Amino acid sequence: MTEPTLDPQIEIEIRQAQLARSNGNEGQARVCARRAAGIAIKKYFLKKNLPIDNKSAYELLLAYKNKPDIPANTRQNAINLTMRVSETFQLPVNVDLIDEARSLCVQLENM
Predict the structure, then answer these.
(1) Is the dihedral of CA 105, 61, 73, 18 positive or negative?
(2) Whose CA is closest to 101, among 82, 81, 84?
(3) What does the mean pLDDT of the chain come to?
(4) What is the pLDDT of residue 3?
(5) pLDDT at 4
(6) I want to staple 101 with a disulfide (CB 3.0 to 4.6 A). Which of 21, 30, 33, 71 is the partner?
(7) What's the confidence (pLDDT) of residue 51?
(8) What pLDDT score does 52 carry?
(9) Contacts of 63 (CB under 8 A, 6+ apart)
(10) Among 7, 5, 63, 68, which residue's Cα sits nearest to residue 36?
């Protein structure tokens, strides 16, 4: 099955995330996954004429997940992408943030 084509900027961030992970840099992979999601959320907010105010990708994720009228699955993607890591740099749940970002981006591009 072919993965959906995303905005080129999003694809670059997803590829950067995958590269960072393959190089053993999970922290950078998280940053890139969040940036990909932030790009998709910004595009979604613009399409819906919602305020953006030059927010970072993380702030856009927070703003998106707090919207009352979004689908549960995209809210969960955003929740997962905004989870804090522990002192040992582990997430509290077993999720792949690159997959979470891709899923959120695909869904937002189709909304």
Answers:
(1) positive
(2) 81
(3) 90
(4) 62
(5) 67
(6) 33
(7) 85
(8) 85
(9) 41, 45, 55
(10) 7
Q: What is the pLDDT of residue 57?
A: 94
| Residue owning tokens 């040992």 | 88
Dist. CA 110–CA 50, nearest whole Å: 17
Tell me the C-alpha to C-alpha distance, in Å, between residue 26 and each of 6, 49, 85: 22, 34, 11
Q: Would you kindly state where each structural domain of the chain is located, as residue ranges?
A: 8-109
Point out the residues of the chain with pLDDT beneath 50: none
How far is Cα 53 from Cα 100, in angstroms, rounded to an integer?
Answer: 24
Identity at 2, one-letter amino acid code: T
| CATH of region 8-109, choose from 1.10.3720.10, 3.20.70.20, 2.40.50.100, 1.20.120.330 | 1.20.120.330
